[in-house]
Amino acid sequence: TPIRITNLFYYPARIPPSATRAVTLASLINESVNGSEFLKAIGLSRLSNLVKNFKKLTTLFMVNPERELVTELVGGEPRNFVVVDPMAGGGSIPLEAKRLGFTTIAGDYNPISYLLLRATIEFPAKYGMRLYELVNEEAKKLINYVKAELGKYYPQDGKALIYFISSEHECGAVLPLIKETALYKDKNIYITWKPDKEQRKILFEISNNPSQPLRVCPFCNRTISIEQLRRRWVENYKKLLERLLQGDETAAEEVTKLYSIAAVQISRSKYRAPTPEDEKRLVEAAKELARIAKEENLAEYLPMFQIPRDNEVFEDVRMEGLEFWHQLFTPRLLLVIYKIIKYIRNRAEELKKAYGELGVAVALYLALGFAKALNYNSLLTQWDSSQGSISALIGSHYALYRKVKLGFDFAEGPIFSLEWAFEAEEGNSEEDSSEEEYETTTGGMLPVLRILCDSLNGLWYEGRDAIYLWDAREIDKYLPTFSVDLINVDPPYYEQHDYAGITEFFWVILQTALRPVLDDLFPRDRVKIDW
Fold first, then answer.
1. Cα 481 to Cα 289: distance, rounded to the nearest angstrom
2. Model-wide pTM > 0.90
3. Where are the beta strands (DSSP E) in 322-403?
C-alpha cells in the first residue's frame, strides 16, 4: 500500500495531510493567486507525474510541495510566516506546515501526541537522513536481539496464533469458551473441536465446515454457564500471574488450562492445528518469567500500574476484574515486554551518551515500534474472521466501539520478530528518497520515517519552531513574542474520541521503556502543564 503518516504510529482521528497542506497554504495567500499555480505549489503536478509514471493510486503525502513556488505565492520567505496548531494530535497540520517551509508551533495535552509530534516533525527536520539511518540500524539490532532471545518461545511457521480463554468446569474438565469457530469465512476455513476423554480437554482441528459453539460440557453433559466460567477464569488468571511474578515456576504448568491454542496461522489462507510443542512453548516462557522474577524486580520493567478508574475505554475490562495493565498480557507476552523494555532502556542510555539528543530520538522510535507491535498482542486483540487477521486493539476494536472488551478469543501476532512493525530496509543508506520512486509499505514504521527525514531535512528553525505539552486554552501564555500569522486547528469533536482513554494503554509502555531519557524528551521548557 502507499506510505501514510499513520504507519509511524496509530493515533485517533488523524486528518489527511493532503487536506491540511492545501488549507494551510490557501490561508496565507490572497484570492488573486492563480488556481493552477496554487495546485502546482502544493505538489499536485509532482503527484500527477508519479501516478502517470507508475500507474498506481497514491497520495499527496508521497510528494513534496514546490517550495520555491510557495515562496512566490506568499510573497516572502516561508520561514517568516508562523503557523500554530494548539491541538495538534497526530500532527497532520504541523507536519504539512513544516513541509511547506513555514515556522511551525504545535502542542497537545496528551503526552503520546506530544511524543508523536516530536517524532513526526521535529526530529526528522533536525537530523534528516542521519536519523533515519540510525533508526534503521538500531531497529535491525533490536530485531536480531528479539529473535535470538525470544524466538525459541514461538513457532517459526506461525504468522499469528488464535486462542480461546479456558476454564475448569465443575466436573474438572478444561473447557475453552468457544463462541466463533470461523478462521477465514471467505475461504471457508474453520476450527472444529472434539473432546479428549483421556486428557479431559478439548482438541482442535482445521476444517472447511463450520462447527457449533461449545454450549454443553462433552464430559459431563451439563449446560455450560459462560458467565460463571468467565468469572472463574479471571480469578484464576490473576492468581497465575501473581504466582509467576513472585517466582513460582510450578505455576507455569497452569498456563494451558487458562487459554487454549485453537489454531496457528501460517499465511492468510493457510492454518494448522496446535501441537504439543506449541503448548510446551507457552509453559517454558512462563517458567522463564518466574525464574527472572526470582532475581529481578519485574515491576521496574512491566506495566504494573492500575488502570485508572476514570478510564472509560477500559472500564468494561476493569469491571470484569482485570484492574492492572500487566493483567492484559499473557505470561509469554510479559516475558517479551520485560526483555524488550530492558533492551530499549539500555540502548537509550548508550545512544544518549554517544549521540546526545539524536540518540534520545532513536530510542523514542524503538519504543514506538514496540508499542505499535503491542497493538496486535494482548488479551484484547481479537480474531477477525471476515479478514483472516488480527483485530488490533486501537485500529479496529477501539475504532468500532470506542471501548474495549475482553472477548472469548484473542490473538498474538509475530511479536518475537518485530520485522513487520519496523520494516527495516536494506540497500544503500546514502541514497535519499526520490519523488521519482513509488515507495510502498506493508505498514511498518521505517518507510514513513524515510520520507519524513528526506522531506523535512533542514527545515527546523531553532528558536522559532517548537512543540509543547500544553493546555490549548492557555496558549496566549506560551506563544512567542513574534507575530503569529495563522492558527490552523482541527479540534477534537464532542465525544468522538476518548484520546486519553485509549492512549493510556501505550503510554504505560512508552514511559516504562523510555524512563532513562524521559527528562530529555520532556524538558522543562517544553512542558507547560502540571502533569
1. 54
2. yes
3. 377-378, 382-384, 389-391
